[in-house]
Amino acid sequence: MGDEGRLNVSAELAGVLERIDALGATLDERAPSAEELGRLPEDTTHALLDTGIVRAELPLGLGGYEFAPRQLIQAAERVSYHDAAAGWTMVALQMITGTTAAYLAADTAAELFPDIPNGKHALLAGHGTRPGRAVPVEGGYRVSGQWQFASGVAHATHIHSAFQVEGTGEQRVLTMPKSQVTLDGNWDVLGLRATHSVDYHCTDVYVPREYTYAATTDTPLNGGALYRLGLVNLSAIGHTGWTLGVGRRLLDEMKRVAAARTGSRGAAVDTSQFHAEYATAEAGLRAARAWANDVWRDVERTLDKGELPSTEQDTLIRLALNHTTSTVSGVGRTVHRWAGSAAIRRGPLDRFLRDLGTGAQHITSSPVVLQNCGKWLSGAAPDAHWSFLDLT
């Protein structure tokens, strides 16, 4: 069983952030070509993996860093500031690979993650919505299904997918070699083009039971308190950090545009209205970041005591992500309005705005999740609890 002790707070955070920053100029320079390619170049991916960004969410006992939640938010924020698509890719690989290592039984995890410190381990991508169908057979399941949005799958060795067991309705998550699925190659979008978030499918593939785990588990078989959060809450960590990094970059890019245009004839950025709206956007971003930090600090205290988050904490995790996404979307609208032609020509502003528009559509920030948060907080469903993104 996993360590039921205190939450691990890693001493490796500063080093990971420093290594990410050292790659910043390269990520910026290569972002346009990565969009054309539809994924990160392999050498860029290897350089990012070498920073420890994926190792950050792997269990300490297997050789990972096992960052605490706010440390994971900082790491996601930093890489996403330099390149939103690279950040999205790494957040996806980080979370899915980390949870696989935590929730599979020790023998299976040891097979997939034999030498994490030296980079010898599986990398996983995939998706948990629209579960596939699984027929129980001796020793495992015969699985068929169609899944969407396998962000980072170009760099993965294995696939993570949700499925529903025929006859019982139980939802589980599988791990299988990438070679056992067909990638549909249908990622034709305006934003996050370099994430290779294609759909994929398989038909009647045998998956041993030991390569699956219950989708609702909050009991790690490897690793400590972090993994008691469960899949949805761990996903919220990465998306919160990604959104904050993108928002910060957009305001910094707007500041550069303003500096270049100040004093020119008829410059909109010289108006009091621009100054007021920039200040409002800055305040909104900083406030969203501070509140997300506050929510996660409280959750960390709970995990450190060996407890599970309460329904209120689960609600606030979802609400903080939804609020951060809404706030940064507003930042994007402000930047787009005042940047003028800089927002429509090829460059960082155009790219980050498009990436934000796509990333903000993620299901974890959907209006339905916001409605469910309000239902619980308003007292309309006091006895309800969260099952994935539904309040039941």
UniProtKB/TrEMBL annotation:
SUPFAM superfamilies: Acyl-CoA dehydrogenase C-terminal domain-like, Acyl-CoA dehydrogenase NM domain-like. Signal peptide: none annotated. Residues 238-365 form the Acyl-CoA dehydrogenase C-terminal domain. It comes from the Bacteria. Keywords: Oxidoreductase. GO terms for molecular function: flavin adenine dinucleotide binding; oxidoreductase activity, acting on the CH-CH group of donors. InterPro entries: Acyl-CoA_DH_C (IPR013107), Acyl-CoA_Oxase/DH_mid-dom_sf (IPR046373), AcylCo_DH-like_C (IPR036250), AcylCoA_DH/ox_N_sf (IPR037069), AcylCoA_DH/oxidase_NM_dom_sf (IPR009100). This is Acyl-CoA dehydrogenase. It comes from Streptomyces uncialis. The lineage of its organism: Bacteria, Bacillati, Actinomycetota, Actinomycetes, Kitasatosporales.
